[in-house]
Design brief:
Blueprint: E1 2-8, E2 11-15, E3 21-25, E4 46-48, H1 53-63, H2 68-82, H3 93-109, H4 119-125, H5 127-144, H6 149-165, H7 169-190, H8 199-216, H9 228-237, H10 239-256, H11 262-279
Helix pairs in contact: 1-3, 2-3, 2-5, 3-6, 4-5, 4-6, 5-6, 6-7, 7-8, 7-10, 8-11, 9-10, 9-11, 10-11
Length: 280
Amino acid sequence: MTIKKVINNNIVSVVDERGRELIVSGRGVGFGKKAGDEVSRENIRKIYKMTSTDVQRRLIELLDEIPYEHLKLTEELIDIIRSEIPYEISENFILTLADHISFAIKRREMGMEFSNPLLDSIREYYPEEYRLGEKCVKHIAKKTGEDLGADEAGTIAAHIVNAELNTSMNKTYKITAAINDCVRVAEKFYKMEFDKTSFEFLRLSVHLRFFIQRVLDEKYSGDEQIEKELSDVVKSVFKTHYDCAVSIASYIKYKHKRNVNEPDIIYLAIELNRSMTAEK
């Protein structure tokens, strides 16, 4: 491999024998090197193959700013997460997580406390991701001696959700807040509180997660229709739950200025029926 740019002593941008631009890391791999020098594969610990040139450019910029040890730590966390998450994770994940982990560690070292206002909601709606967030916090403490606490576990969980949904952190937090509001609308409608620890609630929250993401997407159409026979059956047999789904759709229209189409209302009513039947 031929060096294109030395990012720091441990990370370089290279061109391989097939002409592909890659980023490689390894202890001292860039020390004393310059553009045009060769890099031996035996000195390389990690190769980053980004399909997007924009992601690769942003990764180079990030790696020039954070300590090498924080990059290694992030890679270890991503290995932990990927070993337990069945979903495909976007390649942006290393960018967002490495940047956040580095900042969180530096902030902790400076004695700055962090509070996550959506911690309870993250625990309730993304329990598996939160468990992984806790696991990552324990690993960070083991490697650095810094205990980032429950709030940081929640933030890491949000990053995982962000990677699963392949969206931005702002949208992830917006989706989480919207899910929370939808649950409150349903609880007020049914005049009860969901058991947030139950499997039924977990299943409902997963449905709400993708429902909200779909509805808030810029390409979403509020004009889609569903087969009239199915719609009539749901409105008749699951009337109460259909009315609840309409209430949730009304809230979304009021809060987010989005019209929820009939198919999504019908499928939400079916999911509400399943959850409420199990709750009872």
